[in-house]
Amino acid sequence: MKQMIIYSGLCIALLIMCCNKKKGNDDTATSAVLKDSILTSKLSHPWEIVWGPDNFIWMTERGGKLSRVNPATGAVTTILTIAEVSAQGEGGLLGMALHPNFATTPQVFVAYDYMNGSTYIEKIVRYTYNGSTLTSPQIIIDNIKAASIHNGCRLLITPDQKLFITTGDSNDQTLPQNKSALNGKVLRLNLDGSIPADNPTPGSAVWSFGHRNPQGLVFANNILYSSEHGPSSDDEINIIEKGRNYGWPTVMGFCNTSAEQSFCNANNVREPLWAWTPTIAPSGLDYYDKDQIPQWKHSLLLAVLKDSRLLQLKLNAARTGIDSVFEFYVNKYGRMRDVCISPEGKVYVCTDNGDDDKIVEVKKK
């Protein structure tokens, strides 16, 4: 039986009250006491933070700067500033992913928006890290429409060495259902930019479509999870599946109106795991499978912008559904853009307030 979750303002208020009291899940017998502290500050619109194989935090800032952050000292070392980046509204230097065999193949993939004549465009570029800077840029894919809003854009490399890219609708609702367009999609490429033979449509980078503005992406439990911004309702957590339609702009959240149900039945629409109304503006997403914070184990951690908090989304035993939601650091640090996790289980969250942005460290006290 299809599960539908529709929140009224009262339900949200009750949930917030509940979570504020618990400040964690129900496993109180094994819960760790948490300590949060500022690792570094004076940043400018950080977008992506990734735990690197060198045990540093790799970071992009929307203005075009890539840096490495020392998690022991908070020292920030710039490794490249991309002059071509054009930061307009929500656009600029966005997603980043490091090659999974970084020691032997030190490649860094980044997404950024730039001006091609008078046209605002997004591209994915692969660099090589030489130990101090990034060199040898190679374009992986280009000519993705960009805008001041709804650009996506997260990058992820899965264990089979496929590059996934989320793209927003770039404020053009005609694009997500158009399979010939690159916008409003999750794209899948080989690491050299070629199109995998097992993509849904031969010769097409499109893996899934019907997306509005997906800004979070993580692969865990052999599942690809994503977070996505809705319009004035229905922010979503999705499981991304090959060739599936996610409904936008006809469907918002669940297929719970007669028009949506008709479209969903005719178009193989995949409903979300969870939807929020009113919206919360979900952004970066990661999966916690460490022992340091046992109450967060087997949870998605979601950075939230509009409601300025970190959410724990406790997954069910099959990891295919969300059993409960808990919130942390409500309005303490402001808008939260992305989250990453160290091998020992510390959690790092970057803010996106535009003024003295920070990376916050969360660990067991």
TrEMBL record:
InterPro entries: 6-blade_b-propeller_TolB-like, Glc/Sorbosone_DH, Quinoprot_gluc/sorb_DH_b-prop. Residues 43-355 form the Glucose/Sorbosone dehydrogenase domain. Coiled coil: none annotated. This is Glucose dehydrogenase. It comes from Niastella vici. The lineage of its organism: Bacteria, Pseudomonadati, Bacteroidota, Chitinophagia, Chitinophagales.
